[in-house]
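To fix ideas, we now present one chain and its tokenised fold:
***
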Amino acid sequence: MQTELLKDLQDARRNKRQVVVATYLNSGEQSLLFPFETKEKSDLLEAARTALIGDKSSQTEIEGEPVFFNIFNPELRLFIVGAVHIAQNLVPMAVAAGYEVTVIDPRRSFGSEFRFPGVTLDNRWPDEFLADADADRRTAIVTLTHDAKLDDPALQHALRSEAFYIGALGSTRTREKRHQRLTREGFTEDDFKRIHGPIGLDIGAKSPAEIAISIIAEITAVLRKKLS
């Protein structure tokens, strides 16, 4: 790899950009591709985008020439607002799925090491945490508290971010009230469509563990572009 290309790659990774090194195997020519940062359409970019979504380096043929895609994705992150029972079940599932997890709850009796041993905890208010968190296209954000004082500020920051998944716990009545509050804050119908609520895939989940399963399943489906 040429020195200048390597420097550009290192810079892209420091800035947590989704980047692909495309190598034309016949000629050895290499280039950096940022398929999620352009509206340009081509077979090359679409193949690179697919490789990033699949989290797997791969080889394909573009216009009769074999091209190898070496992918560099930032780490997956999951921000959980609300140190509740569902979160206790969701954390180990998310970790097993490859997420770097942070649980955010200013209520220290909830967000304690006793209840979440070995988990990254942040006892700031969710809006304070998210203001510094730089949620990107590899970040999922879920709100689980049922408390508008905690969930609403988190959702407002989430909707202004590039987070690939936003989910909110709550009944139909809760969602309607949330809709009204966010509308007053200037959010639109397109914004609301980004919020998955009721959170999780509809698998008939009842217990906290079952709800956690439905949440990580839905996050995975959205990540892999199997669900909008």
Notes: The beta strands are 19-24, 30-33, 58-62, 65-72, 76-81, 99-104, 120-122, 139-143, 165-168, 195-196. The chain has a mean pLDDT of 93.
